[in-house]
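Why do we care about 3D structure at all? Because function follows from shape, and shape follows, mostly, from sequence. That is the central idea of this module. The next example makes it concrete: a single protein chain, its amino acid sequence, and then its structure expressed as tokens.
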Amino acid sequence: MKNNGIMIPDVLGSTPDMAESLFAFLHGSTPEKLAILNLAGVSWIHPYGAVALFEVCRYFHRLFQKRIHLTGLRTPIHAYLRRIDFFERGKDVVYTSEPFSTKDDMNRSLSSSNMLEISPICASHQIYDVTTRAQRILTCWLGQTHADIGRIVTLISETCSNAVDHSGDKGVITIQKYEQKYFTEAMLGIGDIGQGIQQSLMAAHGSIAPTCVGYIQKALAGFTARPNKRGGLGLGRIRDIAVESGGNLYIRSETGSVYISSSGTIVKENLFSFPGTQISITFQSKRRD
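And the structure:
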């Protein structure tokens, strides 16, 4: 019987919480089905969706010791994944055999102010490379909030450093620019499949919260796994800058998530278990004429 794999719903370009169905595939599916992910129904992908898909492929590969096959790629989706180096960065864990014409390739440039391709963050020099690109990109996008750019870049560096220092895994990051009618959005996706915020903080502080969400909220309050117990600017400052700009912050770790915007905070517990921490950050700026 032909294995058509699992149909991925059209959630990778939606709000981060909608990507939960992606993690739910871990439960109740056979290894044979999980080895093939059918993206025929996917019409759009945001940075968080790209990172979530990338980390799901890495996790399935870790479980089954075989590369994950992506099928059913629409041409724009295939072109986007190629543009962000999805298959190049993940060549050891994911592949596609879908035909593709190079005439459909998106323009690329290492000096692009539109996008930071999926980039590994598993060593100090890679964090430097990422933050250097982020500085250039954000300066171009968020010119009217220039005072925040240095702080944002520092926060990105800290978030990447956390993935390297405390997750027990390598992380990845991608950034994308979107021009809306009255403003520009800078969207970041960051993720790893390491030990997660709860396990990281428990190792440093012991039991300080009853749930995964509680540990995420502790991290937002400044708790850190660093030896000196100082978290620097931390996730709390990322939250403040993002929300003040009109954007938002979404953090998912293990079985809990916290979504924060100007409308308030939404917490969810008892999600399907998935390792590590996945973060979506959106900054906004009024469009410059």
